[in-house]
Design a protein that fits this description.
It comes from Celerinatantimonas diazotrophica. With about 475 residues, this protein is an alpha/beta fold. It has 15 helices and 15 strands. The strands form 4 sheets. Strands 1-2-3-4-5-7-12-13 form an 8-stranded parallel barrel, surrounded by 4 helices. It has a 3-stranded mixed β-sheet with strand order 6-8-9, covered by helices on one side.
Length: about 475
């Protein structure tokens, strides 16, 4: 296929501060909501503890210690030819408790040094403002995003860093996978997205819509303020896009999968279109929900539309109308009507691998919104085995990524989608979000760190490292 990706296509990799930095209590950093989340495993939920307990293990505290290794790691990204690197700024490095008057200088210095290091190699930083790591203090004192006060603290944090780094960082994103918290069957999503435990609320879903409303207003406020500060800045939103397919051509399956897709679209609809979709208002009415809006909220949403739609894509999911299950608490994008898709295989963690679903997602989003898109996460979490040199023959990872890039290129060349870039998740091995494991690896770079906390933290190149380097060098034509 002829290569149709633009010359300035942003190839790179993606991570989140809490999943790789470590240094959880260094440089004046405060405690974040994820600092009290323990290790879990496939099928075993991570626990949220009341403060930090000496008897528990918290994998994010050290993670892969990027905090001290970032110079060497960035050098490896540069060797692969990265054009961009997506990470987040840990809110607690800048405002340790979230409600301080002035930012923590040591925190600002850390990201200045990191961004300088990236720019030294011509790598554009792409920065998520909130990636599951808000200050614990704001969660405990204000019930997280249930409170409008937190909205103000977030805008203060966001504008502090946007103003400070505006000449180093052009690409910003507000809330990582803001739609994960739509799943209110388990604490973890609401806790990490919003600092709220929705299952213990009287009406969990209503509480979730309220917290999310505050985030929508915060996101729009930040878009507006960032543009006023510096018109060169682009501020996008970020959603987890797990498409729901109808299990069959039974009209009930087709209809239910369309309605289920609103679990995803609800969020991008508000942030990209700048207003609530009519199905949202109908749902609130029908369920008797009363979502509080402050005066002016609707115009803020309309004036602060996201500049681009960033999304993660790992898998698809399939819906069957007569198959009510107890899947709703699962970590794989399932709804209570999800069944296995007989046409696709799943990863070792049960995520259903579906490259065509990426083209389907890109085309659907493009037709719905017609805004530039950015695939800011994609990849395969797998068990890796390394030889004595730390080398790993990860052909399964190469095959996964290759198949997805092929579909991405079709979406550009055949469907005409406007795509800014592609940043595979966990370009260097890091702590899994859903399980807290190290063994669920995504990286091109292996990190010698294990679930029991042992390991030298040495970095080594996997086979996929050399493969991805060629992909970037050929702008996606040599897969
Ligand atoms: P881990 C579901 C569907 C798509 C993305 O996850 C998801 C999820 C989890 O609910 O989350 C993203 O590490 C998230 C990252 C995370 C990545 O998926 O459990 O943005 O922080 O690490 C992969 O394999």
């Amino acid at each position: 296929m002829p290569n149709t990706l633009p010359d300035n296509f942003l190839w790179g990799g993606a991570v989140a501060a809490h999943q790789l930095e470590g240094g959880w209590d260094q440089g004046g950093k405060g405690i974040s909501v994820v600092d009290v989340v323990t290790a879990g495993a496939y099928g075993q939920q991570r626990k949220i503890t009341d403060g930090i307990l000496p008897s528990e293990s918290y994998p994010n505290h050290e993670a892969i210690d990027f905090y001290h290794h970032y110079k060497d790691d960035v050098k490896l990204f540069a060797e692969m030819g990265f054009k961009c690197f997506r990470t987040s700024i840990a809110w607690t490095r800048i405002f340790p408790n979230g409600d301080e008057e002035v930012p923590n200088e040591a925190g600002l210095e850390f990201y200045d040094a990191l961004f300088d290091e990236l720019l030294k190699y011509g790598i554009e930083p792409v920065v998520t403002l909130s990636h599951f790591e808000m200050p614990l203090h704001l969660a405990n004192k204000y019930d997280g995003w249930m409170s409008r006060t937190v909205l103000d603290y977030f805008v203060k944090f966001a504008m502090t860093v946007i103003e400070h780094y505006q000449h180093k960082v052009k690409y910003w994103m507000t809330f990582n996978e803001i739609n994960n918290q739509k799943n209110v069957a388990t604490d973890i999503f609401g806790w990490l997205c919003s600092g709220v435990k929705f299952p213990s609320k009287e009406r969990p879903e209503e509480a979730m819509y309220q917290a999310v409303h505050h985030q929508f207003v915060a996101a729009a406020t930040v878009v507006k303020k960032a543009h006023a500060l510096n018109p060169n800045l682009l501020v996008g939103c970020m959603c987890a896009m797990v498409p729901y397919y109808p299990y069959s051509s039974n009209p009930d399956d087709v209809m239910l999968s369309q309605v289920a897709m609103r679990d995803r679209y609800y969020f991008s609809d508000v942030m990209v279109k700048g207003h609530y979709p009519s199905y949202a208002k109908k749902e609130w009415q029908q369920k008797g929900y009363n979502i509080q809006f402050a005066e002016g909220d609707e115009s803020i949403l309309a004036e602060g539309k996201a500049d681009y739609l960033g999304f993660s894509y790992y898998m698809s999911n399939t819906i069957k109308a007569d198959a009510k299950t107890t899947n709703a608490g699962l970590m794989d994008g399932s709804s209570e009507y999800s069944v296995k898709n007989p046409y696709v295989k799943a990863s070792d963690w049960g995520w259903q691998i579906d490259p065509v679903g990426l083209r389907y997602t890109l085309a659907s989003l493009w037709e719905r919104y017609e805004v530039p898109m950015f695939i800011v996460e994609n990849g395969l979490g797998a068990l890796d085995e390394v030889d004595e040199n730390g080398y790993c023959e990860d052909d399964y990872r190469i095959n996964y990524l290759k198949a997805h890039i092929e579909q991405m290129e079709k979406a550009v060349s055949l469907d005409g989608v406007e795509l800014m870039g592609y940043t595979p998740w966990g370009c260097i091995d890091l702590v899994s979000f859903t399980t807290g494991e190290m063994r669920k690896r995504y990286g091109f770079i292996y990190v010698d760190k294990h679930d029991d906390g042992t390991g030298t933290l040495n970095r080594s190149r996997k086979k996929s490292f050399y493969w991805y380097k060629n992909v970037i060098a050929s702008n996606g034509s040599k897969l």
